[in-house]
Amino acid sequence: MKAENRIRLDIVENTPGKQIKVNFGPHYFVDIFEKDGKATFVLGATHHGFMVDASEVNGELEKIIYEVRGAHPDKTVD
Which residues of the chain have pLDDT under 70? Predict the structure, then answer.
């Protein structure tokens, strides 16, 4: 496996809580952390991506998940 395609997981202690960072493939990443008392989810490639509130059912993240599922039905998982 090439070094640039491996998966790296970092759990970073920050204030006031923890941040989970997953780097994978040639340049993709997922970050999950607390911001203003809410779970925040970031998905991106290199330094481009999106950040949404992930602290509520039917919230921002869930709406994006269903948008992606609708646009790419052959990629859905249940």
Answer: 1-4, 13-17
Query: What length is written for the chain?
Result: 78
Handedness of CA 66, 56, 19, 14 (dihedral sign): positive
pTM assigned to the model: 0.82
For the chain, the domains span 3-75
Amino acid 10: pLDDT: 74
The CA radius of gyration of the chain, in Å to the nearest whole number, is 14
Helices in the chain by DSSP H: which ranges?
Answer: 60-71
SS3 28: strand
